[in-house]
Amino acid sequence: MLLEYSVEKPLNREPPVEELVKSFITKASTAYDRNHGPLPHINADSHYVRLDGAVSNVLELSIASLRNDFKQYEVISALQCAGNRRHTMRTELKEVDGIDWNDGAVCNCTWGGPLLADVLTKAGVTIEGDAHVAFSCMQTDCQEDRYYGSSISLARCMDPKSRVMLALDMNGSPLNINHGAPVRIVMPGIPGARWTKWLDRITVQRQESNNFYMQHDYKILPPFIETRAQAKSYWHLVPPLQSMPINSVIAYPARNEVIKLDNLINGELEVAGYALPDGDSGPVVKVEISIDQGKSWKEAKIMYPDAAEVAEDDGVDKYKWGWSIWKYRMNADDTRRIKKDTKIWSRALDRGGNLQKGDIEWNLRGVGYNGYGEVKGLEVIDHAISECEEPTRRMAELSVSA
Ligand SMILES: Nc1nc2c(c(=O)[nH]1)N[C@H]1C(S)=C(S)[C@@H](COP(=O)(O)O)O[C@H]1N2
Ligand SMILES: [Mo]
Fold this sequence. Notes:
Radius of gyration: 22 Å
CATH topology of the largest domain: Sulfite Oxidase, Chain A, domain 2
Number of helices: 8
Domain Moybdenum cofactor oxidoreductase dimerisation: 241-375
Protein name: Molybdopterin binding oxidoreductase
Mean pLDDT: 94
Structural class: alpha+beta
Strand order of the largest sheet: 4-3-13-7-8
CATH class of the largest domain: Alpha Beta
Domain Oxidoreductase molybdopterin-binding: 36-213
Strand content: 25-35%
Distance between the termini: 31 Å
Low-confidence stretches: none
Largest sheet: 5 strands, mixed
GO molecular function: heme binding; molybdenum ion binding; molybdopterin cofactor binding; sulfite oxidase activity
Bound molecules: ligand MTE, molybdenum atom
Helix content: 10-25%
Cofactor: Mo-molybdopterin
């Protein structure tokens, strides 16, 4: 088996957030990479996913069978690392333990493949009630375990409306190696850590997956757990993180940017970013901006998805798990009022009524950070000081397809 990168140095990278908000659907080549081990090159023609555990028929599913023997579905869903925005938590609150992600450990893509519910039905699930489905990739060692694994509730997997899927395609093309070729589990509304890539085993079982990344990581520890040593005796008391909170970030202007009034059209500053709903409560229905520390809020425009297009498809809201791209045109007076110490904040509201809040509790691993989107340190000047003029930033026509 050819492995790319290594256990010691896995591939972890994110695009600049300004790049990310240029399109509603993120290209596979732009999407962040998060790995706890090397990337395994799998031959799709000889790969099988084994489905076992509490089922009447153990199945060995080839990629051809997953594509041809089951109805194919598509879902638009954001994929977000639980550590997205960790940089803000560690710099604004307190040092945390984890990769220093900025705001780009998230993407929004179309995923295609058969529903797990259909595959489970074919195998015949033999247990009911409180049970789990575990997803594993046994192809390579990881940094803290011999394999990568996750699990979610059996009830969610059996519900076709939750759209848990054995994804073969990303944005209409077969998955590439970075994102889990030839098959990964896609579970809209659930943190990225559970979306096991290079899937080779699905097990219906009574307990959660006992993989390291399910039991000793990706959990929100209480704030009094301040060291790894303390965490050791505490992991088992906290449930795995299975949902991400409402969120929004400002993609531009960038922190400490110098804004030349001469360059602005009508003296208006364009502020833009993305927003994500809480778990299954999407889509985001409102994004607001404040320049007075939250005393007053003004509504931004959600560029995509357009409210008029948010329709139900087969009884499932098409954009329920997607992100929203928004922008706000700050009027000339407000723009002129911006000082070096002004903070521009963003906050989002989703269809389920979840409103983003400003005061966030610190946790050791820095997961699930969702304080207000914020940019500060801006300097607004009348004229360009230097000769080299930068073009005014305006969002290009938003491209909807990747
Ligand atoms: N097999 C395997 N699956 C995995 C991981 C991994 O390291 N190995 N990382 C997980 C984490 S933490 C995240 S955030 C997402 C990242 O998916 P991406 O690399 O396609 O963006 O994959 C998840 N699935
Ligand atoms: Mo992650």
